[in-house]
């Protein structure tokens, strides 16, 4: 038994020095992202901004992300991912530094924040595909599930909890300007750590350029779409995911505050508890999946967890007890994030390395596409039919869709034909990595057996 295999499954990725560096960079980046959200909002408030101004800033960030993410996927398949992530962190740090300078100088305005938010959104559009595509080049296949679980724990705990708490403390001590300066410093840490990491080769054969790079970008984009349309398990899961996002995100983001207020009599604190339950459940679900092997029926369990994990939402429109809402949202968060960790691992294990950046960006893009539509539709639907029917739809339709997806796409047969649960020697390079001539990093070599 090696030193790596003696570790709990969720901790095995940390045996890699490269992964430890990546997680430090990711944690710094997530902490700064969470702090930025609160600092930017409070800066708008201090400037006397209205809800329209806040929407202006939020739209800037979302627009930048949507416009960039597909091109970020193309870049992740053509440029070493470490260079992309390093550049992203430098750009984000520069944006935060500009915000800090403007705020300390007393000349910052709402439009400045909106422009910076747009730039940050563009940077995020390049970050996510590059991170997803780089992870399989750093870790062996059997550790990807644990690594994705670690990320699933970090996002709610660091970005949604620690980041806002840090910003609130800094604003209380001084002002949003101090928060902007600190998050710029966090980006310097993230960029510095990434700079320390080894550069890994792009996991595809790049042909000699015969067309203009601008045209080649769209050729690569088309290749990603063609692969998506020709791969049944991928297409079926993404279509299911699009409909799922449309059905549940609006009720959670828009209708839940009114359910808490009207049915339980709670205020902002009660709503915060409900959202916290969703986040804590998500972290717990991610950690639970990180601690196990990839299940044999990975597609079936993933689709069922997503579909039936929404069922507790049906309770939210009917109960007047806050604790019932909290339990329901914890369960939804647990199962939803557990399935999300499986999904990220599935992409990294089954999508060809040459396509992984583009497919990851397509996944992210379609997830974003209907989210604003869902939130825009939730309000009118809730007013037209009431909260109870709206939450019933959000809770009861997804399980039916899950069963239909499994049956129509024959995902059960597909997962049996493509097992992912085989244990592998972490020092053995196989599959796409072998074809590309990769070798395991020095710090990932197995320790000699004990005498």
From TrEMBL:
InterPro entries linked: MFS_trans_sf, TM_effector
Cellular compartments per GO CC: plasma membrane
Subcellular localization, as worded in the UniProt entry: Cell membrane
The organism's place on the tree of life at top rank: Bacteria
Protein name (record): MFS transporter
Pfam families the record matches: MFS_3 (PF05977)
Annotated region (Disordered), positions in chain: 429-451
Main location: membrane
UniProt topology in membrane: Multi-pass membrane protein
Spans through the membrane: 21-42, 54-76, 96-123, 165-194, 233-256, 268-291, 298-316, 322-347, 359-378, 384-409
Keywords on record: Cell membrane, Membrane, Transmembrane, Transmembrane helix, Transport
């Amino acid at each position: 038994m090696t030193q790596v295999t003696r570790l709990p499954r969720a901790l095995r990725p940390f045996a890699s020095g490269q992964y430890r560096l990546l997680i430090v960079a990711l944690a710094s980046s997530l902490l700064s992202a969470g702090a930025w959200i609160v600092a930017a909002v409070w800066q708008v408030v201090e400037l006397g901004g209205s809800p329209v101004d806040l929407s202006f800033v939020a739209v800037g960030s979302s627009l930048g992300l949507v416009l960039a993410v597909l091109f970020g996927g193309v870049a992740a398949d053509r440029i070493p991912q470490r260079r992309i992530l390093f550049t992203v962190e430098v750009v984000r740090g520069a944006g935060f530094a500009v915000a800090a300078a403007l705020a300390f100088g007393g000349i910052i305005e709402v439009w400045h924040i909106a422009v910076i938010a747009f730039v940050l959104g563009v940077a995020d559009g390049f970050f996510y595909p590059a991170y997803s595509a780089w992870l399989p080049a750093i870790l062996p296949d059997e550790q990807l599930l644990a690594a994705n679980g670690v990320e699933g724990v970090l996002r709610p705990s660091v970005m949604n909890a620690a980041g806002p708490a840090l910003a609130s403390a800094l604003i209380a001590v001084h002002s949003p300007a101090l928060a902007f300066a600190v998050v710029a410093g966090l980006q310097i840490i993230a960029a510095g750590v990434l700079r320390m990491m080894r550069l890994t080769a792009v996991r595809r054969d790049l042909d000699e350029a015969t067309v203009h790079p601008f045209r080649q970008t769209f050729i690569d984009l088309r290749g990603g779409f063609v692969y998506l349309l020709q791969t049944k398990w991928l297409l079926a899961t993404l279509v299911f995911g699009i409909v799922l996002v449309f059905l549940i995100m609006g009720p959670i983001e828009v209708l839940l505050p009114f359910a808490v207020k009207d049915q339980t009599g709670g205020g902002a604190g009660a709503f915060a508890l409900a959202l916290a339950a969703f986040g804590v459940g998500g972290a717990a679900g991610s950690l639970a999946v990180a601690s196990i092997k990839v299940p044999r029926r990975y597609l079936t369990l993933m689709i069922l967890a997503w579909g039936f994990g929404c069922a507790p939402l049906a309770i939210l429109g009917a109960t007047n007890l806050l604790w019932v809402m909290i339990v329901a949202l914890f369960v939804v968060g647990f199962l939803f994030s557990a399935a999300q960790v499986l999904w990220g691992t599935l992409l990294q294990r089954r999508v060809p390395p040459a396509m992984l950046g583009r497919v990851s960006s397509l996944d992210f893009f379609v997830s974003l596409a209907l989210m604003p539509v869902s939130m825009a539709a939730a309000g009118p639907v809730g007013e037209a039919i009431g909260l109870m029917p709206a939450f019933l739809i959000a809770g009861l339709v997804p399980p039916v869709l899950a069963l239909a997806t499994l049956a129509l796409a024959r995902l059960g047969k597909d997962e049996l034909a493509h097992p992912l649960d085989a244990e592998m020697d972490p020092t053995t390079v196989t599959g796409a990595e072998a074809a590309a001539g990769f070798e395991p990093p020095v710090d990932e070599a197995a320790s000699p057996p004990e005498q």
